[in-house]
Amino acid sequence: MTAGTLATTAVRSSRACPAGSHQARKRRGVRRAGTFYLFIAPWLAGVVALTLFPLGYALWLSMTNSDGLSPNSRFIGLRNYQEIFSDDQTLQTLARTGLFTAVTVPATIVGGLVLALLVNRPVPGRALFRTLLYLPAVVPPVAASLTFKLIFDRDAGAANALLETIGVKPIAWLTDPYARYVLVMLVLWGCGNCMIISLAGLQDVPRELHEAVRVDGANSWQAFRHITIPMISPVLFFQVVTGVIAALQMFVPPVLLAPTVGATGDVKSIPQGNYLYMVHVYAQYFNSGRFGYASALLWVLFLIILAVTGLIFKAGARTVFYGTDPKEGKR
Amino acid sequence: MNARRTAIFILLVALVGLFLSPFGWLVITALKSPEELAAVPVHWLPKNVRPGNFTEALTSIPFLGYARNSLMISGIYSVLVTLSSAWVGFGFARLTAPGKRVLFTVLLGTMMMPQIITLIPTYLIFAKAGMVDTYWPWVLWGVSGAAYLIFLFRQFFANLPQELEEAAVIDGCGYPRIFWRIFIPQSWPVLAASLVLSFTWSWGDFVGPALLLSTDRTTLAVAISTLYTNPQGLPINNLMAAGSILYILPVLVLFLFAQRGFVAGFSTSGLK
Predict the structure, then answer these.
(1) Which of A163, A222, B239, B261 is a good FRET partner for B199, with 20 to 30 A between their CA atoms?
(2) What residue segments make up the domains of chain A, in order of their start?
(3) pLDDT per position as a tens digit, A228-276
(4) Among A51, A161, A249, whose Cβ lies nearest the Cβ of B41?
(5) Reported ipTM exceeds the 0.85 cut
(6) Top-level CATH class of B60-268?
(7) Do A45 and B8 count as a contact with CB atoms less than 8 A apart?
(8) What is the pLDDT of residue B262?
(9) DSSP of A228-275, one letter per residue?
(10) Is A115 in Cβ contact with B42 (below 8 Å)?
(11) A139 and B251 in contact by Cβ < 8 A?
(12) pTM of the predicted model, to two decimals?
């Protein structure tokens, strides 16, 4: 679509240009290019100064033994990177984060899709259902975490009160090994986000297609499997990509679900189950003051995210169906 | 068929109940006294409703001061980022130049840029530049636009008819004026969506203010999660619940009012 739009814009604007001398046209071209760069300049400057430069700075730090304070840090080459692969704690947090991603991303996407299918049905009050199911996704992560902390409080929480009615003894939810389940439930609570995106996809599936296969004798599961899923695969793919990127760098909820307050102060009180990779990075920076090593950790995560996204795109190229012109489906 | 519709309706009601129950517990906790919070077994509903928790949440910490900080930061950021993203999006939608295709790919790439990964080194640089404990970082983040919003504006502007600027170009009107006089007045739905989205992002942001701002200048997001403690450093749950409600209320109200903008924003992000 992008390329198509670009092409038509180019054709149109060249037609709009009155035929002048070659030189005049060239001059106008240069001025136009200048105008384009004038318009994108703020963003371009931001990419350079606020994204590429910090990443480069972190890359440089990752090859030093900087502690963030003393001025005489030394260049130590790739030693920080070597340490990562012999550091058991780092490898454990990495594996844990991988598992967390592998569980929460499919769960939220499937959850969101199920909700989207339900609120796509002609039931009375479905606009209200959509709004209310989406509502938790708008709650800022800070407030969502605090709310879940209150629900899963060992003594005063609703979860244990509910379990007690069926005779289950109080569970210390916010500590190991239960804390991880609380985190997963917190993430699932926000699956309204996936619902809205899937719903937009579902609304673009032409109804006639569905009716046609049903007339041909397909049951509703077959129609869903062979029509709906391929038709909405682009939006599902989008959710996989953004979901994986977000899950791999999950940070705020694990910190705020920890039993102590003083959110950024004491990362150590975070139960092992929720001690995810980004929490580890943060602790290495601001609790241990190991800026060099922490920067190396940051770069490793960055490379992992790039690699995983690359793999997903490669897999997506084979499975995602971009058959129809998305512009036609839009209302 | 009708039985099936009823079944779906009932299922949806149950799901909505489940999804809204955390809000319910938040409200219940916010209305309990400390004694009732400690009661065994747990009281499902407070016996003595204490609306006074809300006034205490407002006064036991300088809540309004933090609210003003949050409002300042979110206001500055959302206005700047909306204008800047519209400006850049216009460039990508309506102008051509060598290198545009590559830059557009870069734009799509930065949409997927891991946020926290760049935030920590950015913080280190801001610290070196003496911008810690000021609101300048939000100004800079605002001015440089947000890839996601730029994309939103580009999609919108690219679909407006070419005739819009043709007459103006022939009349010798420059593109900045065309943008400001012709395109901006056409785009209030996207502008509103962008304002609401960016306002809620920065209102909800925790890591940014936690890293960059001291306790006095920080935002509500940090304040409500760290400051409601007793002298032993333990959280005072009823006040924290009341504070949280006051903190999320503006976001929920904004969402309910601007719902269509939210949804429009998210569905265009389908990136098809």
Answers:
(1) B239
(2) 94-329
(3) 999 999 899 989 999 999 999 999 999 999 877 554 556 778 889 999 9
(4) A161
(5) yes
(6) mainly alpha
(7) no
(8) 59
(9) IHHHHHHHHHHHHHHHHHHHHT--HHHHHTSSSSSTTT-GGGS-GGG-
(10) no
(11) yes
(12) 0.88
Contact A146 B233 (CB under 8 A): no
Q: How far is B53 from chain A (nearest CA, A)?
A: 16
Interface A-B, measured as beta-carbon pairs within 8 A, has a size of 290
CB contact at 8 A, A210 and B37: no
Q: How far is CA A4 from CA A238, A331, B155, in A?
A: 20, 19, 13
HSE (CB half, 13 Å, CA atoms) of A322? 10
For chain B, what percent of residues have pLDDT higher than 70?
95
Query: Distance between CA B272 and CA B267 in Å, rounded?
Result: 10
Structure confidence by residue, pLDDT tens digits, B95-118: 989 999 999 999 988 888 888 888
Which homologous superfamily is A94-329 in? MetI-like (1.10.3720.10)
Q: Measured between beta carbons, which residues in chain A are less than 8 angstroms from residue B15?
A: 115, 118, 133
CB spacing of B140 vs A147 below 8 angstroms: no
Domain ranges (residues) in chain B: 60-268
- Structure letter (DSSP) for residue B40: S
B7 and chain A in contact, CB less than 8 A = no
Per the listing, tokens 């209320």 go with: B249
Which residues in chain A have their CB less than 8 angstroms from residue B229's CB?
A: 261-262
Residues of chain A falling short of pLDDT 50: 1-20, 263, 325-331
For A14-63, what is each residue's pLDDT tens digit? 334 444 456 665 666 666 788 999 999 999 999 999 999 999 999 999 99
CA distance to partner chain B, nearest, from residue A290 (Å): 13
